[in-house]
Amino acid sequence: MNTDFNLNFLCENFDFTGVFKEFKIKDEGHINSTYVLIFTDGEKDYKYTLQKINTYVFKNPDELMLNIASVTNHLKRKANGNSERCTLDFLKAKNGKYFCEDEDGNCWRCYHYIDDVYTCNTIESAEVFYNAGKSFGNFQRLLADYPIEDLYETIPKFHDTFSRFCDFITAVQEDKSGRADTVREEIEFVLEHEPDTKVLLALLAKNELPLRVTHNDTKLNNILFDNETNEGICIIDLDTVMPGLSLYDFGDSIRFGANTASEDEKDLSKVSLSLELYKAYTEGYLASAKDSLTENEIIYLPFSAKLMTLECGIRFLTDYLNGDVYFKTEYPEHNLVRCRTQFELVRDIERKFGQMKKITADAAK
Ligand code: GN1
Ligand code: MG
To answer: Residues 107-127, buried b or exposed e (16+ Cβ, 10 A)?
Structure first.
């Protein structure tokens, strides 16, 4: 078996049903490693999603899993008995926690695999993206009464874009990878956009935007869509559920899902902001979340799309300068390619900003 998990260790620590049959590798996220484990009792299969928590990124797995356990419990309570497919259901390990640590210091967690669903990496139809907006809007609404002070900050200053900008400046100065000279144009682009990085933080500081419980990683592939209804039924990847701004969640969804190209497309002429998809997501999102949002949270929706795209590009570039220590990469220029798609998308959002504002205002009527 060519994996980094030890099946015996896992079977000693988690109470799986049946005997082990096979596993599959899920290779989507940039952070954790994910597998599907399939057990069987001869008649029926029992499937589990296994993840190795990336402890370089999530320094405190105890706090991380306490957050996730209590947020998923909250969502289950809200589901009124229909909780099986509406949120993740983690297995308790023998140590009483929702993860266990092997002798090499790797942390493992498992949840019941949710069947008859699909995930998307690109959007095939506006209807699916409308449903994505509805799901994230709903997620936010369901967590609106969650006690914010109970949450640990799993990654401090995660979407503090100005702090990301400062980390970037440090990375340019240190130039650990020796690559800074080859990315002068991209560095210039970030410097020109510094004022944008402070806009939402300033509103938050003045109490003109409310702090909420947010997901903070609202990529399209973090929604499970039902095979039959195409509705988004379950939000996954809850590692970054933390106090944040609703605008972070909206903006990040647009960044990923309304881009006409993938995050690591090399041909920049394919990158653009689809206004049709922007409209679909905004309508879906406002259909479920509008009543719980303030006026500023609606007005800044188009800006948040630009900001989250800029921030993500800055993070990819920073990692490129630091020598690719954070995001998983498949080839040496991967982070640079990702950074370039993000900056190209920022440019297109800037061109289409007026139209995005109009679409948003219409959808909010
Ligand atoms: C990471 O793990 P994944 O692929 O869902 C990252 C997000 C970035 C995203 C960019 C904890 O998310 O913040 O937006 O890559 N997650 C973390 O694709 O840093
Ligand atoms: Mg993810």
So the answer is: bbbbbebbeebeebeebeebe
pLDDT average, residue stretch 120-128: 91
Closest ligand 1 atom, CA of 263?
Answer: 18
pLDDT in tens, 183-220: 999 999 999 999 999 999 999 999 999 999 999 999 99
Residue 319, ligand 1, Cβ within 6 A: no
My answer on whether 165 and 285 are in the same domain is yes
* Residue where a domain stops, chosen among 90, 115, 140: 115
Asked if 235 and 336 sit in the same domain, the reply is yes
Q: Which pLDDT belongs to residue 2?
A: 55
Angle between the N-to-C axes of helices 301-322 and 184-192, in degrees from 0 to 180, rounded to the nearest 10: 140
Task: Compute the distance between CA of residue 283 and CA of residue 360 in angstroms, rounded to an integer.
Answer: 8
282 and 329 in a single domain? The answer is yes
Return the residue whose CA atom lies nearest to atom 13 of ligand 1: 217
Chain-centre distance for alpha carbon 321: 23
Ligand 1 pocket member 164 (CB < 6 A): no
Q: 256 lies in a domain?
A: yes
Find out whether the beta carbon of 109 lies less than 6 Å from any atom of ligand 1.
Answer: no
Which atom of ligand 1 sits closest to the CA of residue 316?
10
